[in-house]
Amino acid sequence: xxxxxxxxxxxxxxxxxGEVSMCYEDSSAIAFMDIQPVNLGHVLVVPREHxxxxxxxxxxxxxxxxxxxxxxxxxVRRLHGADDMNLVVNSGPAAGQNVFHYHVxxxxxxxxxxxxxxxxxxxxxxPDRTLLDAMAVRMIAELRDxxxxxxxxxxxxxxx
Length: 160
Ligand code: 5GP
Ligand code: ZN
What we know:
The chain is an alpha+beta fold. The chain has 2 domains: 109 residues, HIT family, subunit A (2-Layer Sandwich); 38 residues. Helix content is 36%, strand content 16%. It has 4 helices and 5 strands; from the N terminus they run αβββαββαα. Strands 1-2-3-5-4 form a 5-stranded antiparallel β-sheet, covered by helices on one side. The protein is globular, with a radius of gyration of 18 Å. The model has no long low-confidence stretch (mean pLDDT 93). The chain binds guanosine-5'-monophosphate and zinc ion. The site of guanosine-5'-monophosphate (5GP) has 12 residues, from loops.
């Protein structure tokens, strides 16, 4: 069982040490209403066990959290009259993560609500096709090479 090395607000909530409005639970996941929602109905799907980010959560558990989010999505949409939905994971400080207990945001959206995940990124410079092709080939090579994948996984664990 992973334990946080610093105080963790989501572990506290899971352990009953704070007020939480829970809307779903099972043996490995819970979901509760975000305290500062983009729109009413904004839900966080959270593993019971403490994992910090995408680099340390077991893939099966990450898949389960997405599955829960997909099941909750039509309910949130219906209850809150949402036009559309965002499913978001912020993994790591540079990616905007603020609470370092892995979680999936399920965000109901309404036209003109003012929230934005601006993609395509306005500051982006479109790379040359040859560069995009080269990146794709490098990725294919990495995915095909189990040794390189093992090394990459070890490096990720060591740097965590
Ligand atoms: P992050 O930026 O880490 O992806 O998102 C953290 C989310 O957790 C934010 O949307 C924030 O409103 C929510 N949050 C932070 N503290 C609490 C809390 O004590 N209770 C609940 N329900 N949500 C919280
Ligand atoms: Zn935690």
